[in-house]
Amino acid sequence: MPIRDRALAHACIRTIAAAALVAVSAAASAANLGFLNDTPISYMKQRDLQALNSAAQVALNTKKDGESLDWDNKGTGNTVPIKGTVTPQNSFESDGLKCRKLTLVAEAKGQTQTWTPSACKASDGKWKLKKQ
């Protein structure tokens, strides 16, 4: 086989190998998030997340530790009904900011999902998730 043909064959093999590697990597990444299939967050759209955020802001500002605020996604345009609760758990200070741990619960299509982030009150008065 002439050198030019050999170089072309090697280039083709490298291209095919690279494409296969990209395909396998993409499949592996998708598989790593497969556990989220059919969970409430997989049905949430941007407006649902905004409704949850609004409920969290209200709960953090008005509820005592352990008191829950119900929320749902009515009016967001999502055909999948999602509902849940936001429950502030305990208050603490971090980097000079007032912070609270909270429990967020979402229910959709018979599945329940729970998150327990912390949020801190920023200088603009809004609660923002604390980076873990």
UniProtKB/TrEMBL annotation:
Leader sequence residues: 1-30
Database matches in Pfam families: 17kDa_Anti_2
Keywords of the record: Signal
Taxonomy, superkingdom: Bacteria
Region (Disordered): 66-87
Domain Surface antigen: 30-130
Keyword Signal among record annotations: yes
Name of the molecule in the record: Surface antigen domain-containing protein
Organism from which the protein derives: Caballeronia pedi
